[in-house]
Amino acid sequence: MTDLVTLRRDDNISVITIDNPPVNAFGVKVREQVLAALLRAADDAATDAIVLRCAGRTFIAGADISELGKPPLSPTFPEVIKAIEACEKPVVAAMHGTALGGGLEVALGCHYRIALAGTRLGLPEIKLGIIPGSGGTQRLPRLVGIEKALAMIMSGSPIPAEEAQASGLIDAMVDDLDAGALAFAREVAARRPVPRARDRADRIAPFVADPAALDAAAAAYLKRAKGLHAPAAAIDSLRAAITLSFDEAIARERALFVALRDGEQSKALRHIFFAERAAAKVDLPAGEKPRKVERAAIIGAGTMGSGIAISFANAGIPVSIIDLAPEALQRGLDTVAKTYRGALARGGLTQEQMDHRLGLIKGATDLAAIADADLVIEAVFEDMEIKRKLFADLDRLAKPGAVLATNTSYLDVNAIAQATGRPQDVLGLHFFSPANIMRLVEVVRAEKTAPDALATAIALTRTIGKIPVVVGVCHGFVGNRMLRLRTVEAERLLLEGALPQEVDRALTDFGFAMGPFAVSDLAGLDIAWRMRQAQGLRAEIADRLCEMERFGQKTGRGFYLYEAGSRTPKPDPEVEQLIVETAARLGIARAPIAAKDIVERLLFPMINEGTRILDEGIAQRSGDIDVIWVSGYGFPSWRGGPMHYAGTVGLPYIRDRLIEFAVKTGDARHRPASLLEKLAGDGKAFVTLDG
Ligand code: COA
Q1: What is the DSSP letter of 199?
Q2: Atom of ligand 1 at shortest distance to CA of 128?
Q3: CATH of the domain at 639
Q4: How far is the CA of 2 from the centre of ligand 1 (A)?
């Protein structure tokens, strides 16, 4: 067995070092070896104090998440932490990088905590649908107080070392971890008894005296936790900290943790955690590396172009925005400046950061300005001829080896690539609006895209803080191709008997942030209208609304009414009348539709299309489709994305319902995809295809 943990002694201090790359996850082998090392050091007469530290880029980043789905193995987390805390000699956690989740819980079990400047500490369990299950909800509040613990546990966001020190979570910050840890350990080596977080009562005392205050403090967090189980459990566990003995509270915390760990929500969130990371992987032929990107250029200074430019500047990459129309360029640069001023006013960045980032963005009205860019992203009007002409120009002007990307959301990237003499450098980077906020990027691999160009695009999108997912070429790629089916179905539901607010409500109750009609109103109905016209398609209700110049929020009317200055959708009797009349004209008898049926009608056809997308190899894994829907389209992450969700519903049921939908609507696309039929017949889930 390889050593994941080493023990060495420096004079009277024993140093336990964990070395389990990449993030020192605290898996069972590590736990076993840490426990053994601890017991040895505790028994060693020459040892007065013990340091627990990690090699590599970070302190323990948590439990090994892949172990959470399996039966727990001994020694468990709580057993190891209990042994550390019980040790009679002082144990000092020396942290660097990110001390997260179970990692921070281990540190909380130590008697002292020190951290290298720059360390970030947090309990992100809530993001995985669980709560800290190894004392985090008990020891943290005893060190930092209930309010601070509540904020950390409910947000899951890590705090910087300075804040950790100010709040009492760590005892000291050091500039040299090894030397600092040894010096600190020597300083405390003789102190007895050792301080144990479990024995502290002072910081939680105000809430022990007034337990009801917890509910008041928790209310705001719970309001934001719609549909999720973990937040309420976290509050229950914190309540135990102020109403039960430490040992009883620890048992309560563990029970709550286990129930969540074994529940569907956490399984879904863990699936998304790994799917996000898998989606960013491409196998490069041996010896090949991503190309260097030191400068970028964006063509088109519209909302999309400006948003993308901001993302680059935020990551410290110099970027030019090019627009041939000087007024459009100025508008784009103004949008950028306005966005930064807004962030400055909200405290999201400092004046100095803003000045630096603005300094990285240069405007130009001449395409020749792309000459020094390593990556060019085109974000101009969605029209094939315009794009092809532009790419022919890029071919002439871009430097050799520059990656040339189109931000098209539908068009054929192969055809765009063919407009150049270097199709190997061309690919799609489909950002989502607003591009400085939305994290998803569909990285479209065209027929001739070179692997290193693809790897460059992926590495770059990760550098600018996005979630890249590799997809193949087809109309609308993965996200919009599936969305299209939902849009068609949503309109059919109106004609068959539902109202926009009922359809939207069914999906927001399911967990989406917004329903399809509220989304259309926000995006503007005219965009989809123009696209339908170009393709000779018709949507009875949406087209009619556009003809009435009801374009959504921007005109104060769309599927809903909006009062001046308000973004709150109000049901509109005029729209209801339009729906009823249209259905009558088309000879459709309207009847009420239950929320469950609305959800199935909207989601099952998308899942069916997702299956075709998988079968065609447009997406490499079902998890990729899930990541796209969770990070780009508001699918509730705790349901794991459409394909994972399909597994929880059961594919045979979905297949049978699709057959009913095909008969009812006469829409052949609702016939179950052959791969769906096969998996349903074999009793398998999509994830079995992912390898
Ligand atoms: N358990 C198992 N694997 C983990 C892990 C964990 N707790 N944390 C990270 N990994 C794996 C990732 O899956 C990835 O594996 P891969 O290279 O095979 O894809 C690798 O470690 C690197 O992680 P990544 O997220 O790509 O690196 P990063 O430098 O961007 O971020 C962290 C590092 C630690 C901030 C980030 O991985 C993270 O937040 N991890 C989860 C922490 C957590 O939730 N802990 C609580 C669990 S109780």
Answers
A1: G
A2: 44
A3: 1.10.1040.50
A4: 21
